[in-house]
Amino acid sequence: MERQLLAQEQRLSGTGAWTPGSLSTLRSNLRELPNPLSSPNVSGLAVATRRPSYGKEQQVKSILRELLVYIVFLTDLCILTFGMVSTDMYYLNRVMSHLFLETPSSEADGVTFRSIGSIADFWKFAEGPLLDGLYWDKWYNNVTLTTQKTSSHIYYENLLLGVAQIRQLKVRNGTCSIYPYFRTLLKDCYSEYRYRAEDRAAFGLKNGSEWKYLSVSSLSPWYWGYVGLYSNGGFIFTLPKSKQESAEKLVSLRQNSWLTRGTRVVFIDFSMYNANINLFCIIRLVVEFPATGGALTSSQIYSVKLLRYVTYYDYFLASCEVTFCLFVIAFIIHEIIKIATLKAEYFRSAWNWLNILLVVISVLAIAFNIYRTVEVSLLMEELLSNSSVYPDFYFLASWQVHYNNMIAVNVFFAWIKIFKYVSFNKTMTQLSSTLSRCAKDIIGFAIMFFIIFFAYAQLGYLVFGSQVDEFSTFQNCIFTQFRIVLGDFNFATIEEANSILGPIYFITFVFSVFFVLLNMFLAIINDTYSEVKADFAAIPSQEFAISDFLSQDFVTFGGIVLDCQNMTLPAGSSPPSVETCLVKHPARLTRSACPVPGPGQAQAEEDGDGHEGGRSEPGEREEGYPKPAQLHKWKENFRRKPPSREDLSSVSSQGSVSPEDFQELFRYTAELEKELDGVNKKLHRIMKKGNR
Length: 692
Description:
Blueprint: H1 2-13, H2 20-32, H3 54-83, H4 87-101, H5 119-134, E1 153-154, E2 158-170, E3 223-224, E4 229-230, E5 235-238, H6 243-255, E6 263-274, E7 279-288, E8 296-304, H7 312-342, H8 350-385, H9 394-416, H10 418-421, H11 426-437, H12 439-464, H13 474-485, H14 491-497, H15 501-538, H16 545-558, H17 560-566, H18 578-584, H19 601-606, H20 618-623, H21 628-638, H22 645-654, H23 659-691
Antiparallel strand pairs: 1-2, 2-5, 2-6, 3-4, 6-7, 7-8
Helix pairs in contact: 2-23, 3-7, 3-9, 5-6, 7-8, 8-9, 11-15, 12-13, 12-15, 14-15
């Protein structure tokens, strides 16, 4: 390395014929020298850190601008999302749940909706707690409310919209097969509910909609219950506006056996509106009558905000919605341009797929917003024209819930996308490197893990499925085993179901999965992370451009005085003032730290040039080539005394350089690079003019 430095010195002091290749060779040789600034005994020395190249800086600035725009978009999206929900929704759901699901009947047995176990219990609930909850025509002191004769206000605050609707679905007789031994004993056979097994024939009195099957062409999704997936049609009737008339209607249906052995499900639907908090509450009570006998109850209570623009805050949200639409349009155009530019290469990036997902979900959300607004207006017009019909807000509420879920997923992935912009962080890079490096090991381990896990799930389902609710289905077995891994389990029920296989299953599962497999998984990640961390410590990464860019700007603007006064300068030169740094070299504040006069620069400043080395004066720019005086000044700068042979010999013998020597060499090389860059530009312009 010493011979290379001497050869560079001879070129400099002799011919002066420098080339960009020789300059880069000298800089690389200087970088190979031990850095004295890393020693612990050096303090108070300002270090000029390397900044990224100009192209890299432009890329970093572009990423920062994109990050700023994305933060604005994310803020707007979060305002819209959280503007759709409120704590009032939870309290309204809780009040309605208590009223219709937990209020007992006035009889001695006190039947509630949750305790319905037969058809007889259903009629007790319908004629008791259901009617009491739907019709509030008296005050707490039994004073009749004259203002609510034509409408009902549940809890005196929630207006019942239209009337309630009750619907049932039946299956035909003979839809199941009877074993020959029992055909003489059993004449009727009603299977579990299937769409093809529906009984659509009129029955009973056959004089009303409740006795005739009605097909409903609604956009409402089918209901997925405990034991079946139920369609939207059925035998339907609505309750009158009066509580007395509704009670008489229910008694008549009960006496005429409206519910039969073929009945598999009954739906009770109604809606209400609370003007105090501008919320709709849509309630569906479901009672399933499975083929096993008995009854299973479930409910859906949705509190949604269907009328969006009422208060000033709602109009602020409307402006945010407009901004969101503009962002989505801009993102669509941006992604189309990227696809046209990159073509197939575009789809090889996971971040681009995430962008497509965000755009698609956002477009669907905008379309649903428009559709919901139009549909609510139509429903309200129909309701106002005839208040004795059932307004089907259920399909709007169900789609609103799906919309909320979709937006929640959109917000989740929008926050995940921030990792794309913070990947310059060392910790995030270590995390991604750890996951990518151990991916193969984790995949191999996952195969082994799930083989054992599903083997235990099948064992639990076959042994305990008929007796323990947590193992009643294969899906429940999987979730139950995950709960056991997390420490949430009920060992008594397992032991009670099978006193021999229960403890064996539990002990072997905990030992195999929790103590062995789970710790192997953690060991794989831990070992890989240790390796990645050691690699990062041994080989400093140069990929944290944004972090270096921000930290360098902080040093440049915040520590400019300290840098200028603490740097060691050549003999005979004085440190530049802060005014010199800020006034004479404003462009350098964005390219490097506070400039320190190198060879030839201090003299240039004393002469009052006021421009950087290698830059042409206004007159020179007009002519396209430098003046002879400027060329002479450059020649003198090049012939400044380089590092002596004795200095280089001492460097080679000692194996390290002092901070002063290292900084002088570095400044000298950097100044030469700047000077040569300017000369090359001037020569290029001269040759270009000569060719003309």
